[in-house]
Amino acid sequence: MVSSSHEAMHRIFQEDPGIFSRTFRALGIPFGDPVAVSLLPTDLTETKPLERRVDTLLRFDTAEDDGFLLLVEAQGKRDSAKPASWAYYLAHLWSKYGTPPVLLVVCQDKTTAAWASGPFTIGPAQWPALTLRPLVLGPHNVPVITDVSVAARDIPLATLSAITHGREPNADAILKALASALKTADQKTARIFIELTELGLGEAPAAQTWRDLMAADLSFFRSVTSQNLRAEGLATAVLFLLDQRGIDVSDEARKRITDCHDHETLITWLARVYTTESTADLFEDDEA
Fold first, then answer.
1. Domain boundaries in the chain?
2. Alpha helix (H) residue ranges in the chain
């Protein structure tokens, strides 16, 4: 089962794709800012074989070059089978779209990040046919943002900082800065990044700190963290992502989503929205 933390680690690049370029420019890798970004289907399944899905797939069009595909994978631990899957994804995308693919792996611990950095070689030792070199973001290189003014200038980056450092000793300071920065955002933006932060922290100890901040410090958003309006925020996120994927939402389906106040159901829909092709698919298991 896909965890909420897993979802948030790659979804943040859907909310603000430019965070990719900004982060790596600061790390000395000059990716250009996108002039257009397209959310592409994440289903890489062939006609018959094993189904393969990436977490998030975006097309970046830049002013500097012909652009590239950004494949974002959230990785919670070492997995010896992953390098082969990643190589498949990259080769498939290059063949399908004819556009250079870039693999980004987002981690929440330094050990997994060090492993995910590779390089991974494919082929015999005498003559490796391919070398896989993922870009990796994690607590080892994502900026630690504890200054409220810095967090307010780039809330998506501050959220990524909170998620990737969620298991680190400095997590509480990052979360306090983000909580204060969210007071400067409009309510829709704040709701999205409040939920992303909570989902991204998962079961980390800092998750309780975040819940406490939302309940006490952010009186401006207190209604958002009350039971019903937290559900409203999740429903808004589900509708927003369905719209981003170009999925038609009937009045009946929209009412069903907005009227739902069950958090578990809304989180299930939120996770399912990335692979569904219609609202009928979104509700399928519920109907059963």
1. 4-137, 148-217, 227-287
2. 4-15, 18-26, 82-97, 110-116, 148-153, 155-164, 171-182, 187-201, 206-212, 222-225, 227-244, 251-259, 263-272, 279-282, 284-287
